[in-house]
Design goal:
By secondary structure, the chain is an alpha/beta fold. It contains ten helices and 14 strands. Bound molecules: adenosine-5'-triphosphate.
Length: about 300
Amino acid sequence: MTPIVSVKDVQKTYDGGFEALKGVSLDIRDGEVLALLGPNGAGKTTLISIICGIATATSGQVKVGGHDTVDDYRAARSLIGLVPQEINLEPFETVMNTVTFSRGLFGKPRDDAHMERILRQLSLWDKKDAQTKELSGGMKRRVLIAKALAHEPKVLFLDEPTAGVDVELRRDMWETMKDLKSHGVTIILTTHYIEEAELMADRIGIIAKGEIKLVREKEALMAELGKKQLVVELSERANGIPESLGKYDLTLSDGGSEIVYHYDSRKDRTGITRLLNDLQAAGLQMSDVRTEQSSLEDIFVDLTKGDAR
Ligand SMILES: Nc1ncnc2c1ncn2[C@@H]1O[C@H](COP(=O)(O)OP(=O)(O)OP(=O)(O)O)[C@@H](O)[C@H]1O
């Protein structure tokens, strides 16, 4: 399937000489929710700004729906809705006018039915005549989404939609995102919250120091969570793994005082009982046994260690 957004070798050096993106390539699939996780200053906003045509790449190419974001800016931009991090609404304007105006900016004809549909979908219909300054923080964020959807884009970028919002509002936002996805909108969301990525995303991308470190199906990452390690502490250091234990996935660690067994905890037979018997039969004395599990958080911390700027 042709990706709805294709990013190829995008590099960005800001005027001061700082390299914020170091050759990023990424394909976004039609209809998916992709969560971009990364520490502060990783380059998430820079990447989104380049895709949306707000910033220019120093080199590389971005296409949206097959349209080059530089050569064919208008066509590419009209397929994109952007919900920024900051709330930037006209305080004295009504919700309806705010959203209608956004549609007009894209040269789209007035469409009252579409306006009603998105305002209802975002639970803002009751507030259509209210001035934006009269709205709660959560409603203002939903108005930003309505604005971004006003011109019927195919792809919606949400830059940290739930940063600094309370738990209840975060849940509301998640419901809104699920609803939009069910209506076929492709969603790219940047977040610091691993829980949010786990809950919302079809795929998870990890970005750090201007580089994409990993893009994986969430299910595959979850399967990774199923991978566990059994660490067997030995009473005496071993020089190597005995040949009789060659059939197990074992590594020797901590200078030979631990044997680590990698296994899949979701399987019916983990092989642990057999391994412990075989260790004993091989003459290895065990002093302790513990299990360890890798989580998305571990993977994230591992990949982005020391990368926050
Ligand atoms: N206009 C600019 N001029 C110079 N440097 C900039 C500019 N905008 C961003 N940067 C730098 O580029 C890097 C990436 O910034 P960016 O805003 O893309 O990160 P981010 O991943 O979105 O971070 P956060 O999670 O804090 O929003 C940072 O080191 C930032 O200081």
